[in-house]
Specification:
- The protein has a two-stranded antiparallel ribbon.
- It has 216 residues and is an all-alpha fold.
- The protein has 7 helices and 2 strands.
- Helix 1 runs antiparallel to helix 2.
Amino acid sequence: MSDWDDDYDDYARDAAMAELAQQALRDRSIEGTRFYLGTYGDAVDERISSSLVRALELQNAGYHEAAVVFASTAIELSVRFLLVRPLVQGAFLSDEWAEILASRIGTGRTQEDRKILPVLLKQWHVDIDSVCLASGGKLWDVITKHLLPKRNRVVHAGESASCEDALLGIECAELLRERVVHVIAGGLGFTLKRTGKWCRIHGEGQSEFGGDHQWS
């Protein structure tokens, strides 16, 4: 066998090993993300639902400032604990990295903060920039450039809020849940629409879990 053949074999072997390593990391990433959501997703969802209920009640009663605050809370809980934290947890396999990035997202402090979630979601083939409100506005732009700054001014500067502000916040929270969180959930094999639970995956034979799977 020639030296060229030996070099080619070494190259092919290295490429195969690199591909296997990448696949192993990808599998472990998905496993870590599933475990996090399966374990904590229901507790987070309960708080999100409670915040949305309060936002709707307050909006209907005319307390628009409080409704904006609760709708924004529902959004930040979704972003931090159903998106950023579990996806980073799986990607970096490190609680420290997950905590650092999750603590930064949704604050609106810098332009970089607003870039983290869209970039992270694209790794999971979800384009949040393509999700639009009924009015045509882009969901993530409205959240980061209007709603969260509005919430901050309401809380810290005593600024008033309109009925439209409150309704916009509620729409954003619900759309984020439906068009982003639930899409990620479906891609990971969760069956929220059927079971209503993160902790339970209801299989139909085709599931990699071989049927029903439940986290304790």
